[in-house]
Amino acid sequence: MKFGKEFEAQMVQEWQEAYVDYSNLKSILKDILRFKQLNNVPSPMAATIKGKLKRNASLYRAFSGLTSRFRPESTLNNNEDEVILVSAVQGRDGEGDYQTMFLRSNEEGAEHELVFFRRLDDEFNKVIKFYKKNVAEVIVEADELSKQMNALIALRIKVDNPVIGENDVVNLVPNGFSSNSSSIDHPTNAWSMMNVIQEEKKKEDNDGINGGEGNKKEGFKAAPLEVLDHVKINVEVGTPLSTLKAVIKSSKSNLSFSRKELRTAEEKITRAIVEFYRKLRLLKSYCFLNQLAFSKIMKKYDKITSRNASKAYLQMVDKSYFGSSDEVTTLMERVEDTYAKHFANGNRRKGMKKLRSQAKRERHRITFLYGLFSGCSIALIVAIIVNLHARALLNSVERDQYMVNIFPLYSLFGYVALHMLMYAGNTYFWKRYRINCPFIFGFKQGTELGYRQLLLLTSGLSLLTLAAVISHLDIEIDPRTQTFRTLTELIPLFLLILVVSIAFCPFNIIYRSSRFFLIRCAFRCVCAPLYKVTLPDFFLADQLTSQVQAFRSLEFYLCYYVWGNFRERSNKCEDSEVYRVFYIVVAIVPYWLRFIQCLRRLLEEKDAAHGVNGLKYLSTIAAVALRTIYQFQKQKTTAWLVLAAATSGMATIFNTYWDIVIDWGLLRRKSSNPWLRDKLVLAHKVVYFLAMALNCVLRLVWMQQVLGIQTVLFLHGTALTAVVASLEIIRRGIWNFFRLENEHLNNVGKYRAFKSVPLPFCYDHNGDNSM
After folding, report:
1. Measured between alpha carbons, how far is residue 92 from residues 97, 124, 631 in Å?
2. Residue 361 DSSP one-character state
3. What is the 8-class DSSP label of residue 103?
4. Residue 439's closest CA among 259, 211, 279, 243?
5. Helix H segments across 211-258?
6. What is the pTM (predicted TM-score) of this model?
7. What is the pLDDT of residues 301-331, one digit of tens each?
8. Residue 710, phi then psi, degrees to nearest 5
9. Is the CB of residue 720 less than 8 Å from the CB of residue 710?
10. Where are the domains positioned within the chain?
């Protein structure tokens, strides 16, 4: 693999704008090579110049205002083999920038090389500023984690042995470090940054060598338990109970020194340390990849121009802060020691395994199984079609009865399987186009499902459903099995119980972590007013709005098996007023949950856009309710038709505009890509226009309920309803890809590559110094 592709594959996607623009630099080198080939420019190393004359300093060209006055005195003696001079100058923002002077500017084609070094300087200064900024941030975070660890150790001592004396407390206090100090200006400060991470290890070593006096010689002091007097426990306002408590009193509470409180603090700090270590690893990778990119591009320059400029430039890279700083490496070592000491019982291997969680390995059996299940599903579909035609079931007298009573029971699983199939396709394309969906959704590393696992679940569900359908048909048609008619009607119910049992299975099988993540998100959606709304929550709620017909199928299950006479395959559900009312209620519940989420975000974030989004869902609720009322009318009046069509039309326009402009970020008139965005993931722009057009068309499927299109399509009303519901699921699948693409690009624009992990302790200004 060429370095350019490997470089792009290994970079942190949210930081891609901060990396060296290797492809651009490479294209400039190609221009230099092309110029030399067209003009037959001789190699500078092979050219012989008789009577070499000293060049005046005024002949040298400089970039970005760099002139000869910036040259250090040691370089005033001109070296004839010297190609470039690199100096650090004071930039406009007060920071030092590195600028390169090209010393062969009077040669033919030198303007291309001038452009190359100007661009190279811009890229290097961009990289080093970004790296400095992030190192400064992780040092501040390390200081905060040190204080949190200090409080945690004190809390452990207090909970495990409340009567322990202060002299018996291990030393965990950082050695005179202040969070206001900058390790960028004083690199040695990084070595004292995380003393809390190694102080127990140092204490043990010093005790063994100096007879217990090591702490005094190292300047450490015992961590006082009085630090707990200045610490409060953070109550995360995110659960129903904490939300209600926050209304009554402060969101922070005093320590009660309970084991439950200790476990909660340990869990939060563990998550914070793991995420902090991940950030350090990515920073180290960022530094290494960019250094390698500068080395590669300078060697390419030397090869193309036959010069020897890489040595001088790479020496500057090595001597700069970017190449010489070791704060990140030091912090990584100390975090590893801390985690192994305090969270892995001193087992470093176990601690490293949790810190460096490995990505899931692809297994061939998953591919084999979903291929097998898919093949069996296709075979069952063919068998069902053959049965229908061979036995003329489509022209049977009981056709309408079967479509009204049985078809809705099995269509529920079809909706779920289709949605899972669309999500599997989304996952595949997100991965292909390097959209970081695990980070956006907040999946724990190594537990997210890939498209192969999703296809396995989808094909397994479809296989179970189709097997139930064909067994239902065979048992019903065969005269020898007529005595099992009651059992036949219970097959869909057994299938539903099986699927729900697998979803809620507490054992660690069939991707338990992903199942429970989905259940937690669904519970948070139901309790939307009492939970802080996160992206997975409202993303799932949006998926539920496209599964309205599935919720109605669940309602039909209840009616058919509780109030209906399923033994005789008859029911009067649609004749019941209660059923009709709940038929409307279950359809508007997903939109209502989404509306409540918008209100919660409006109150928390004070962003009027969430209020407008809430109005969008209110308009959809009105449209769905009026359409359903019109659908149930036996004598359809013009007034209800106008109301249903008007509300549905306004909701369609509102929703379509919001999908394309807000959720997808498209239709930007002044964009560099006309009517799209400035940044696009897909190379073919026509895909975006096709997606917008398809979204508009699929948004209009509600018209079949109002205009009665089923008489034109020669389909049974139940089958047409299933087709319309499936089209909505397909539309949602398309929406998912572009919605997450837009979210990913927003994260890239803001360099957001890490989750914000809440810390367990908060402390006042008086207690700050004591920690």
Report:
1. 9, 16, 69
2. P
3. S
4. 279
5. 214-218, 240-248
6. 0.81
7. 888 888 888 888 888 888 888 888 888 888 8
8. -60, -25
9. yes
10. 364-749
